[in-house]
Each structure stands twice: as C-alpha cells, then as structure tokens.
Design brief:
Helices cover 52% and strands 20% of the residues. With 201 residues, the protein is of the alpha+beta class. The chain folds into 2 domains: 140 residues, Jelly Rolls (Sandwich); 57 residues. The strands form 2 sheets. Strands 1-8-3-6 form a 4-stranded antiparallel sheet. A 4-stranded antiparallel sheet has the order 2-7-4-5. β4 and β5 form a beta hairpin. α8 packs across α9. It is globular. The N and C termini lie far apart (45 Å).
Length: 201
C-alpha cells in the first residue's frame, strides 16, 4: 500500500479501496511557500488532502495572526464554513512550504458520499476531526501547560520546526514568542543536563 494512502486509511479509518476511489476523483494541485489556499472573506468549498507539505490555518485578531491549526502529510484541510455551508471563510489557510495536495469540490464529493457508505462515513470523520482540532485549540487557550503542549506538538509533527516560524507556533500555543523561547531554552538545558549525567554513569 502506498505510504500516503496508508496514512489516510489509518487516520480516518477508511478502506484502501474507498481512499483510492476518492483520490481517482481528485485533482493534484501544487502550492508554493506562502501561497494562500483559502483566503479569509472568500468562498472555497474544496476538500484537500496534503500529500507533502505543512499548512496552517489562521485568522486576524487585533492586528496579528492567530494560528488555529497545522496540517501535514496525510491530513485533510479545508475551511469549515466553505465546506459545510458554501459560506465565506473566516480563516486563511497558508502553505508553510512548497506543497503537493489533492483537491476535490464539495459538489463532486457529495456525489461520492451518496455512492459509498464508506466514503459517507469518511465525510463525518473529517468534520469530527476538524471540530476536535478547533475545540482543543479553544480549550487550551491560556492553559499553563504550554511546555507540555509544545513537546506534544513537536513530537507529533517534528517537521514544524523546519518550516514554521516560531511566532506561528507560539500563536497556536496561546503564548508570546518570548515565552516560547524560554520554554525552548529550558528544554535544551534539561537535555544537556541529562546528557551530562548519562555520560558520567
């Protein structure tokens, strides 16, 4: 099984045949670093599966960007407003690096949902996944566990550090860039201490 297909199957609990049926109806699209896939205030009902790359969703708040989520290889990305209701998006979705994705319109997707129970269930899981992302982000607002959340984020998606500026990661964690720098310094110091103690054993 193709690694990309396997990621989709594992993440969204859908069969290989259903994933392949969906991909056969999708268009491969390419984006450059900093391209906006979805622009705030416009309509975009497309569903995207990221083959390679990292994207972030954000909105403007008090003159600054507030990052809501990151998505990487094998993950779906879309504007909930456009996807669910063909309404104007309240967020931007931006490519953090050169990316390849598969795209499909909601109209075509609806036809597929009607043709397959497996794909219809996939549609439900996509919305569930997106709602969980946004709910977790809201619940963690102001959370004192920023260090723990940073470590979890980097463990799950280590390539973020390669492609995403720290100010965007700080925004996602609801902390300032200065606070994130202190957290990173603490982690580096702890790692050095652990290595030093290990070498003495």
């Amino acid at each position: 099984m193709d690694a990309f297909v396997k990621k989709l199957c594992d993440r969204y609990k859908v069969s290989e045949s259903d994933v392949q049926t969906l991909l056969d109806c999708m268009e491969e699209v390419h984006f450059k670093k900093r391209d906006l896939i979805v622009r705030e205030g416009t309509k975009n009902s497309n569903l995207y599966f990221i083959k390679t790359g990292i994207w972030r969703a954000y909105y403007h708040k008090d003159g600054a960007d507030a990052t809501i989520w990151f998505a990487s290889d094998g993950e779906a990305a879309f504007s909930v407003w456009g996807y669910a209701d063909n309404a104007y998006s309240l967020i931007n979705i931006e490519a953090m690096c050169d990316s390849v994705a598969y795209s499909i319109s909601r109209a075509t997707l609806n036809q597929l949902y009607h043709s397959s129970i497996g794909l219809a269930n996939l549609g439900l899981r996509l919305m569930d996944h997106q709602l969980l992302l946004q709910e977790n982000w809201l619940i963690n607002s102001g959370s004192p566990r920023a260090k723990e959340r940073y470590l979890t984020l980097i463990k799950e998606t280590p390539e973020l550090l390669q492609y995403v500026p720290l100010k965007y990661i700080a925004s996602y964690l609801w902390i300032t860039p200065q606070s994130l720098s202190r957290i990173r310094a603490e982690i580096a110091s702890s790692s050095q201490l652990f290595s030093s103690l290990k070498n003495k054993i």
